[in-house]
Design a protein that fits this description.
The chain contains four helices and three strands, in the order βββαααα. About 15% of the residues have low confidence.
């Protein structure tokens, strides 16, 4: 499968998005920043829940080697900061419901 990867940076956070599918990949440092924990915690935490390997896109625009799939971000969040999951879930449900009815909030 060919991916169209683009790097996005904002507020010191760098993520990679497949512009065809919207799938998002994150480095260990990005996950650590999102969860307000040390990067070493991410690197030392084994996430064996998923069979997929971290994506390793070969684009020269990407400044890191290992990118974690979205499911791994959820698994890290569940393991390291479970209280964040409710916040993320509420936002996701709200976003989904707004999209379903065509509401475009500010």
């Amino acid at each position: 499968m060919t991916r169209n990867l683009a790097t996005y940076k904002k507020n010191g956070l760098e993520l990679v998005v497949d512009t065809k599918t919207g799938e998002t990949f994150a480095s260990a440092s990005a996950i650590a920043k999102l969860l307000s924990i040390e990067e070493e915690v991410i690197l030392a935490t084994r996430i064996n829940t998923y069979n997929e390997s971290p994506a390793r896109p070969g684009s020269p625009k990407i400044s890191f080697d290992i990118l974690y799939i979205e499911q791994a971000v959820v698994a890290f969040t569940k393991k390291c900061k479970p209280e964040f999951l409710n916040r993320y879930a509420k936002f996701g449900v709200r976003h989904y419901l707004h999209k379903r009815v065509g509401y475009e909030g500010k």
